[in-house]
Structures are given as structure tokens and as C-alpha cells.
Amino acid sequence: MANRWVGITIDCANPTRLASFWSAILSIPATAEHGDEPGWATVGSRFDDRPRLTFQRVAEPKIGKVRIHLDIEVDDIEAGRRQVETLGGRWSGERHDYDEGVVMVMHDPEDHEFCLVQYFR
């Protein structure tokens, strides 16, 4: 049996808003894989060669730190930070400088944590 990672589903209050944010950050189009279902929105497709992001409306608010997050590689860490902030996300203020690169902990518009990573080549 062959298993394949096809995506990540993120619980949220506003699926359309988060799909728009992540579509812009990742340069992957939002799709209509869930049709007109108002509680769902998707970036990418299960038929793509990379995993899709699906956003699912839930009633309960986010409380505390999520125990899984996305790492997004950028060419320029400061330009990546500005893009996130322009799109409605924010920087946590946490930055880690390593020999191999820089990591900044960010938050999307609904406060989900993710990291921008710039690797030194």
C-alpha cells in the first residue's frame, strides 16, 4: 500500500480569509474543491504534486499554542515578514539566528503560528 501526504486541514473561524492569506503567501491559487460549502476553503488541490491546505470553520476559538506548524522558506526574511504583515499576519517578535539560516515565528490573521525560514546557501 502506498501512502502519500496530500494536505493539512486547519481549523478556523473564517476559512475564506485564511485561504486568501495563505494563497498569497505561498503563491498557490485557492480552489473550489469543496464547492460552495461556506464552512470550507482550499489552497491548492489534492491532485497537485504538493500538499494542499484546507480551512475548516469551527465554532470554538483557538486557545493556546498549536503543536504543529508550517515552515515557509523565503529568499529574504525581512521581505517575507513585510509580506505577512501586509496580508494581515504578524511577527511574534521571536527570531532565531543559526549558522544555516534565520527563523522568524509568525502568526496568520487568526493567530496560528508558522515560521518563515531563510536558509543560507
List keywords for this structure.
121 residues; alpha/beta; Signal recognition particle alu RNA binding heterodimer, srp9/1; 2,3-Dihydroxybiphenyl 1,2-Dioxygenase, domain 1; 2 domains; four-stranded mixed beta sheet; 2 helices; 8 strands
Care to give the gist of this entry?
By secondary structure, the protein is an alpha/beta fold.
In words, what does this structure look like?
This is VOC family protein. The protein is of the alpha/beta class and 121 residues long. The protein has two domains: 53 residues, Signal recognition particle alu RNA binding heterodimer, srp9/1 (2-Layer Sandwich), CATH 3.30.720; 52 residues, 2,3-Dihydroxybiphenyl 1,2-Dioxygenase, domain 1 (Roll). 18% of the residues lie in helices and 37% in strands. It is built from two helices and eight strands. The protein has a four-stranded mixed β-sheet with strand order 1-4-3-2, covered by helices on one side. A four-stranded mixed β-sheet has the order 5-8-7-6, with helices on one face. The model has no long low-confidence stretch (mean pLDDT 93).
List the helices and strands and how they pair.
Layout: E1 7-12, H1 15-26, E2 30-31, E3 40-43, E4 52-57, E5 70-73, H2 77-86, E6 90-98, E7 101-107, E8 113-119
Parallel strand pairs: 1-4, 5-8
Antiparallel strand pairs: 2-3, 3-4, 6-7, 7-8
Strand order of the largest sheet: 1-4-3-2
Main sheet record = 4 strands, mixed
Helix content: 10-25%
The CATH topology assignment of the largest domain is Signal recognition particle alu RNA binding heterodimer, srp9/1
* Uncertain stretches of 5 or more adjacent residues: none
